Amino acid sequence: MEQTRLSFHKEIAKNKRSSYLLIGTVLIVLLALVYSIGFVMGPDYFFIILIAGTIISIIYVTAGYYKSADLAIAASNAKKASGPEYRQYHNIVEGLCLASGLPKPKLYIMHNQQINAFASGRDPQHAVVCVTDGAIEKLTKQELEGVLAHELSHIANYDIRFMTLTAVLVGMIAIISQIFLRTLFWSSMTGRGNSKNNNNTIMMVIGIALAILAPILVALVQLAISRKREYAADSSAVKFMRTPTGLIGALKKIQHNTPMKVSGAVAPLFLAKPTKEKEWFQTHPPLSKRIARLERM
Amino acid sequence: MITWILIGVAIIIVFVFFMYYNRFVRLSHQIDNSLAQISVQLKKRSDLIPNLLSAVKGYMKHEKKVITEVTNARKALVGAEGIEAKMKAGNKLQSALKSIFAIAEGYPDLKANTNFLQLQQELSAIEDKVAYARQYYNDGIMSYNVMTNMVPGKWFASMYGFNKREYLKIAEAEKAVPKIEF
Q1: What is the pTM (predicted TM-score) of this model?
Q2: Rg, C-alpha atoms of chain B
Q3: A93 touches A107 (CB < 8 A)
Q4: Tens of pLDDT, residues A131-140
Q5: With bands split at pLDDT 50, 70 and 90, how would you rate the model's confidence at A130?
Q6: Of A84, A88, A98, the CB nearest to B129
Q7: In chain A, which residues have their Cβ closer than 8 Å to the Cβ of B129?
């Protein structure tokens, strides 16, 4: 069967739709968890847990949100890209900003021989883009342009904001589950909890199972959302450049990368993460699949 | 009860009116801004030409014809009024520059000159930027025209007096594939 061409407009819309669907899934899991806790513990307890979980999670993630750009730059040991050798880097980003209507982000360089790049910042006004020395040296101008178009797409699609929202919800679920399980454990140890609800044993088991499984499930959903946003950024990069050639070339070169050492916290931000885990546990789709999609555009 | 529903509906209608007006305004600004960006880049191009000419003059003594061509094209660009004329002059200048860079291939000393290389890189970056700015302009026009042609945007457009806008076209002669002569 002949494969149909992919239109980048449709691809962007499709990937955005599915990431909203996935965030809907996270919300449903949150509701189910909340409902079953309410059933097991009684509504009073449950409200305290919900409120505590929400507050902790929001504080934790807000700090990360406002400092996202600084944190990423500090964690990856990047420095400002200034000097004539980075003139082309600046020129390409300026051109792509004209193509996308974005303000020019701050540009950074990371000393590493691997080809890679990342973007961060809560909105286009506070965005940063960082590439490795390896990318500047080993990629042709068009390939570097493809990589930078992908990174600017993350900024244009507000991916940092979207992933932050996801992180708040996922964090909330994790914290609520923890509090629930610990309270339950503590009350059964002191023998206060099991006096009244013998008939609720089944609900209790379901509640505990959900509290254990929910954080794992939503973490997987979070990874799936991240992969969708990567595809969306690839499509947007094609929208800015009107050709997938550059990005395809860059991704093919990255396939020969050996894994690079970066802090786990910033790893999801990068252009590509060349490790050999199962796709489900990855923040990025496999390079071969990304190349195959791009080649159909 | 019915009064509340009517008030609710009225608020929604007012909101839709505002929303469409703001959308038109935002897109118009986006389009105007990208048009201004094209002019900025063309201005930068014409500003770099004197530097380029002084860099190559010492080397290209026998290439008077090309150099005059570039000088004239720059003059035309500086004097051009309106975006269409500017674009046209800018394209002419770009093709004159291409012949300078082609000739420079035959001068190894010039090709080793860092000043010349920087100017060459800068000018080719400007060419990309002009193309990108034009692409963004045309994207803006597309969304704008889609909105003014579709219902209900069409009604709002005629009500607020927003008219259809034109794409930026490359002049027919310049779109033609250059003839190769031997």
Answers
A1: 0.80
A2: 24
A3: yes
A4: 999 999 999 9
A5: very high
A6: A98
A7: 91, 94-95, 98
